[in-house]
Structures are given as C-alpha cells and as structure tokens.
Amino acid sequence: MADTNPVPVISFQGVDITGGDNVVIYGLDMDVLPGDFVYIVGKVGTGKTSIIRTMIAENPVKKGSAVVCGYQLGGIREKEIPFLRRKLGVVFQDFQLLMDRTVEDNLSFVLRATGWKDADAIGKRIREVLSDVGMERKAHKMPHQLSGGEQQRIAIARALLNRPEVIIADEPTGNLDNETADGIMRLLTGINKEGTAIVMVTHNRGIFEKYQGRTFVCKDEKCLEQKDVEVIDLALTI
Questions:
Q1: DSSP assignment, residue 7?
Q2: What angle, 0 to 180 degrees and rounded to 10, lies between the N-to-C axes of helices 148-160 and 119-132?
Q3: pLDDT tens for each residue of 77-97
Q4: Measured distance CA(16)–CA(20) in Å, rounded
Q5: What is d(CA 88, CA 39) in angstroms, rounded to the nearest whole number?
Q6: pLDDT number for residue 1
Q7: Gap between the Cα atoms of 156 and 140, Å rounded
Q8: 8 A C-beta contact, residue 188 and residue 201
Q9: Other C-beta atoms within 10 Å of 224: how many?
Q10: How does 151-182 read in b/e, with b if 16+ C-beta sit within 10 Å?
Q11: Where are the chain's structural domains?
C-alpha cells in the first residue's frame, strides 16, 4: 500500500537563505517529497544557487527549520556533513570532473572517498551508473576527450553512485546546446521516474515548460511555488 504521508527528503520551513553575509531570500517554505521534480527559477542574483548551497550545507542555516535527508541543517556538525552529502547527488553546470584522470578513475575516487573499499564492488557500481547514463563505453576516456553533453552525463553518473535520495542540479544544461540539453533532461526525467527526487535550478523557460515539474520562483527576496505559467514568465522577464 502506498504511503499516504511520505516524509519529505527536503523540508525548509521559514528559512532565511544567505549569500555571504546577506540574506538573499526571507522565510523559504519548501517541501520536496520522494519522486518530486522541483524547479527553482528566477533571474540572475535572486538567490537560486544560494538555496542549493544551503541544501548541501555549504551555507549555514541561522533562522528557520531545514531538514535534508534526515539531517537538521541548523547547527549541523562539521563531521556530519560528509554523511549528509552521501545521500545527495549534486550536478553542476561546469561538470567539475577531475581532468587529470579517466572517467573510471573519477568515479572510483568518489566511491573511495565515501567509504567504499572493495575493488570488485567499486568496479561493478561504476559499470552500473555508466550504463544508466549511456556511457558504458567511455570508462577509459579522459574528460577532455568527451563532448560537453558526455561530460555532463558522466557528472550525472557520479551523482548516482551512492544511490541518492535526491539529485540537486545547478543549471545542468547551462553550457549545452539545445539538442544536448534535451538529452540531459530526458536522462534526468528518466531517473526521476525511477523514484529519485530532483531539485533543479534553471533559467531556461523552454526546459521547465517542456518537462513538467513543480516550480518555485525567486523574486524580490522571496521564493514561492507558482503554478501559473504566465506568473512564472513574468517573473523571468521583469
């Protein structure tokens, strides 16, 4: 029987989001449930990336209640942060692959850094995630030998390694052409349909209109969920 009251993987209640020393968004309320696909949209400088940094415990929570994958972010201990991040998969606009090692070594590095020790298990997991993103033949390539879209697929494979409860993606299609971006979105929505929640920052109107999800709009030091496409469009143009 389906759980009628699922526990949110992310729950922000009245959280002030900071960027540096300044509050950039006041009183954020946001619940992300298992299997949700959530967009955070808004113009440059409205606090979108600061929300992401707060979710991964890079920015502190000083006001409000913030729980991510069971961890209370207000007052989270330094030694707890790596354990929180093992439950998250993070995808960046600029891929952030280690350029001096192969795809396989990039993924192995992450697994070993998060406590994996058995070489056979590491190899098996790497093969699984590369297959998931259609990159199983690229394991021995160096990042510079891959296209932008292929590098982003590897970054998504890296995010999947520890079977995260939620993938947090900060403008994952921002450096890609439209056709390649479309392929990345199909990949992310496929992962989402398997049950992984996704929170994605984007400014690309075409993406969140084509691939449906809940949409939060950052504007005027607030971030509110909007269901009216015209309201969302207005927020991005004014």
A1: P
A2: 130
A3: 999 998 898 899 999 888 788
A4: 12
A5: 16
A6: 46
A7: 17
A8: no
A9: 17
A10: bbbbbbbbbbbbebbbbbbbbbbebbeeebbb
A11: 34-57+81-237
Report the distance separating Cα 113 and Cα 26, nearest Å: 35
The H or E element that residue 33 is part of is none
Q: How many CA atoms lie within 13 A of 142 on its CB side?
A: 5
Selection from 213, 190, 168 nearest residue 9 by Cα: 168
CB proximity list for 235: less than 8 A, separation 6 or greater: 41, 42, 43, 217, 219, 226
Question: Which tokens in the block code for residue 54?
Answer: 């707060």
The string of pLDDT tens digits covering residues 41-50 is: 998 889 999 9
CATH number of the structural domain 34-57+81-237:
3.40.50.300
Which tokens go with 182? 């479309």
Residues paired with 66 in a beta bridge:
12
Tokens of 67: 């729980």
- DSSP 8-state class, residue 12: E
In this prediction the pTM is 0.90
- Decide: helix, strand or coil at residue 154: helix
